[in-house]
User: Which sequence fits this backbone?
């Protein structure tokens, strides 16, 4: 119980920062993918954005239904729902003094599941691959949340 | 001012971890509710997901307008907008050394409001019940944010 | 390396709390803007909410396509995608012991970009103003995430 603080002197927090950094950076890259595909396909949500398409001599009007862009956005929203809650629960979990090897196993499973979830979503890999990756990540985050609630109840 | 760190040795942080864990776990359960209802009603957002419905001998195509699923998703997005910002503001707020009894009152009001907000949303309870629960939670989170900004300004 | 903890005794954390508090409060105000415009224009997403419009003697039915409300909601979702990830990455980044003047510069650029992003979005300012503010904020958050991953790898 010597070092449970949220700082890099705590080896468990440092490992959490690594995996948390990876999944957050992955989430942010969805924004970049959306931007690239909006410009490449001239698919914009706002009237004023269509000027970008017009500068490329394309005839564009606001559209919210392009399959490629909407798929990336659904993947991004799924990341917000799962990655953000994982990092928040993880901060509380690391402070609760968990067993370090269990904790690192959780972080690795979650990170692996979310990276493969994105591959399955964007690559349109047949189900149930994406469902399993989604379920794996969610299960880990839920186990961590239950552990936090249990430890914080006493 | 002895114990303001983000660790379980700080009694206020421990209480914050409890309420934060509860509202985050509640937010995650929305994912599970969405999945259950997508499968139960064969309502899928992606073409590759329809294989799940076809395996149950149902004729399905991607649909984004099922009222039950969309209601759960709106409730989930509302949680992301409110619960996630509350937990983030709460981490900054706990570190700012607030009055513990005020802080715990805030956490309890927020948690109560958000649990009842979900009941009102999914149960389609007549307004203004949901609006009041939404406003109560948002007011508490805003008061905490203003307190953080004020204390961090000096 | 004396004071890298997540508490107000750490001057860098205190500055992070200020900028984090500002962008989180800004994000929350999007909820208030949505509510005001839903009531002002009688644009509601749920059947039970229409009672609010009916109490004002207006004939309303659920609608998900009002341009004003949807613009505010897109701006809000963009905040969730960017502000929430920034604050999460920022907590990890502050704990990693960064150069304080670089760190504060990052926080200021991000906060400035996101405030101007909202002005550009709601004011329908011609592009590429909003795109540049979006890109500036995302670049800063990505640089912080890469720094966290790099430092946590050793």
Assistant:
């Amino acid at each position: 119980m010597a070092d449970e603080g949220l700082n890099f002197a705590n080896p468990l927090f440092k490992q959490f920062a690594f995996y948390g950094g990876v999944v957050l950076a992955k989430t942010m890259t969805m924004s970049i993918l959306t931007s690239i595909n909006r410009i490449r396909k001239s698919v914009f949500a706002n009237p004023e954005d269509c000027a970008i398409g017009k500068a490329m001599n394309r005839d564009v009007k606001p559209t919210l239904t392009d399959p490629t862009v909407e798929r990336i956005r659904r993947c991004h929203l799924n990341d917000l729902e799962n990655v953000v809650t994982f990092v928040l629960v993880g901060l509380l979990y690391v402070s609760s003094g968990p067993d370090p090897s269990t904790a690192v196993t959780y972080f690795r499973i979650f990170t692996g599941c979310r990276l493969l979830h994105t591959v399955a979503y964007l690559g349109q890999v047949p189900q149930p691959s994406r469902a399993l990756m989604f379920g794996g990540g969610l299960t880990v985050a839920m186990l961590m949340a239950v552990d936090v609630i249990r430890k914080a109840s006493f």
Q: What stands out?
A: The mean pLDDT of chain C is 90. The two ends of chain C are 17 Å apart (CA to CA). Helices of chain C lie at 11-41, 50-55, 67-95, 100-122, 129-152.
